[in-house]
Amino acid sequence: MLLRSGREKPYQMPLHGSQSVEKQLLLTNMKTAPGKPVFSLRETVKCYILTEDSKTVHFDIDEDGHHEISTKDSQSHEDIAWLSVFTRNEAAVTDKPLVGIKDSKNLVILTQRSKLNEFVLLCKGKKHLSLKVLKASCSEPDYPSMERCNMKTCNHEDPDFKQLSEDNNFFIMHYQGDSVQFQCYEDTSYYLCVNDDSLDIRKLENKEPKEDKKFYFRVSYLQEK
After folding, report:
1. What pLDDT is attached to residue 29?
2. HSE on the CB side for 46, CA within 13 Å?
3. Can you tell me the mean pLDDT for 108-114?
4. Helix/strand/coil for 188
5. How big is the chain by its Cα radius of gyration, in Å?
6. Is the pTM higher than 0.85?
7. Backbone angles phi, psi at 57, to 5 degrees
8. Mean pLDDT in residue range 11-35
9. What percent of the chain is helix, strand and coil (3-state, nearest 5)?
10. pLDDT value, residue 57
11. How far apart are CA 40 and CA 88, in angstroms?
12. Which of 2, 44, 203, 224 has the most CB atoms at less than 10 Å from its CB?
């Protein structure tokens, strides 16, 4: 397994493993009206999210419901993140024809596998970060006669994006040279930042985090041999 430079943009990322061309065309079911998807999934890639001090971002929910959001000096398979990139379809919101792509922002969600083999989503709470469990996309059977998937043995590669119905699930990923910033989509005055050995969100009034490295991260994409 090799690490690639964080300079590569999401639309240039190759698909690996069980990912296919069809996944780039997958539309989520987040809708404002029947038949009008609001967010289109462009692709999902595996990566490590690193701080500017090269610590690894990790988050999990244990079997007792305890939330863990931390940064670690070490790195393991438990720290692998699923970074899913979306495009917002403005035509679905305004009911006007979409000419070209009006919103070119990289809207992303960040998930990791928990020790219980569930997908855990990092999202914005009222004033702090929060975590939410997402089912794998195979956890809802297509037919009533099929047995429900056992999440502890499920190896499905994707969370169920149908559950993403709130704007606080999304971040806007901004590229700043080799680094990135994660701006909250629901309230753009909040940014993801490092707080000692943990992560949080911080509200910035009428300014952007230009120099403070606590607001900067690096994405190391995983490439299968």
Report:
1. 42
2. 20
3. 93
4. coil
5. 17
6. no
7. -80, 135
8. 42
9. 10, 40, 50
10. 97
11. 6
12. 44
Distance from CA of residue 159 to its chain's centroid? 10
Q: What is the pLDDT of residue 90?
A: 62
Q: Which amino acid is at 9?
A: K
Q: In angstroms, rounded to a whole number, what is the distance separating the alpha carbons of residues 222 and 97?
A: 38
**CA angle centred on 42, ends 39 and 47, rounded to 5°:** 115
Specify the long-range contacts of residues 28-32, CB closer than 8 Å, at least 24 apart: 28/86, 28/161, 28/162, 28/164, 29/161, 29/162, 30/161, 30/162, 30/164, 30/165, 31/92, 32/92, 32/93
The structure tokens 């792509």 sit at 101
Q: Which helix (H) or strand (E) holds 93?
A: helix 90-94
Question: pLDDT tens across 65-97, in order?
Answer: 889 999 999 999 999 999 999 987 765 554 444
Residue 137 has pLDDT above 90, yes or no: no
Q: Are the CB atoms for 108 and 185 separated by under 8 Å? A: no
Q: What is the pLDDT of residue 54?
A: 95
- In sequence order, the 6+-apart residues with CB closer than 8 A to the CB of 145 are none
Residue 68: which of 134, 118, 126, 130 has the closest Cα?
130
25: nearest Cα among 139, 33, 15:
15
Reference 122, options 108, 106, 136; nearest CA is 108
C-alpha 198/C-alpha 68 separation (Å) is 9
What does the alpha-carbon distance between residue 203 and residue 109 come to, in Å, rounded to a whole number? 19
C-alpha 158/C-alpha 148 separation (Å) is: 16
